[in-house]
Amino acid sequence: MSRRGRLTVRKSCISKVARFITLFALYMMASPSFGFSIVSTEAVRDSDTLVTVVVDSQIELSEDVLDAFKSSIPITIQTTIKIYQVRNNLWDKLIHEYVTRDVLSYRSLYRDFLLKSADRNVNGGYTSLEAMLEALGRKRNYQVELTEGTLRADRSYVGKVRISIDRSALPSVMRLPVFFNNAWRLKSERVKFDIK
């Protein structure tokens, strides 16, 4: 094969790879029609080391997630709250990250729904999935205790919150297949809020 022929084949291969990468990136960025949304957030500085963040959200599971859940596979929903110190000439400085997980499970033998949560107000059993998701989504108070540093009175602070499915908590045989499945990429937008 001539040199020109080899270059043509090489360009064709590169073009196909670039097309595949572009399509894969578009697929991964596609927004599902279900998922999590944060309705409102507010935060109050209780002390130099404690912030109360109130999050009101809506949670809707995809058909694939519901099928796994009804097959008694626990689903872990993760809430991540990050606290930042505002800096004028630089990007905001992350000073604390708070993560909490709620585990949803279904016991088919008893036909009941269990929510295992650090929040005692929602922890326990439910008669329906809808009731459990509603309890999980309604306004909840998160006590974010800063372990590194304190909030100074002369500085401004903001926070960001996101709710998502923790795919790493799934059984190991499921992790790779769900990584490429758009129906499992359930997460809210990252919502910014002021700390008063």
Written description of the protein model:
Strand 3 and strand 4 form a beta hairpin. The chain is flat and about 75 Å long. It is of the alpha+beta class. 27% of the residues lie in helices and 37% in strands. It starts with a helix and ends with a strand. Strands 6-5-4-3-8-9 form a six-stranded antiparallel beta sheet. Strands 1-2-7 form a three-stranded antiparallel beta sheet. The chain folds into two domains: 1-30; 32-194, no CATH class. The model has no long low-confidence stretch (mean pLDDT 83). The protein has helices at residues 3-29, 63-70, 129-137, 172-179, and strands at 36-45, 50-59, 75-85, 93-107, 112-116, 124-126, 140-145, 157-165, 191-194.
Arithmetic mean pLDDT: 83
- The H/E string reads HEEHEEEEHEEHE
Low-confidence stretches: none
Rough shape? flat
User: Largest sheet, if any?
Assistant: 6 strands, antiparallel
Question: What is the count of distinct domains?
Answer: 2
User: What is the SS-derived class?
Assistant: alpha+beta
Report the count of strand segments: 9
Q: β content, as a range? A: 35-45%
DSSP summary: helix tally: 4
Radius of gyration: 22 Å
| Fraction of residues in H or I helices | 25-40%
In whole angstroms, how far apart are the ends?
71 Å
Which strand order does the major sheet show? 6-5-4-3-8-9
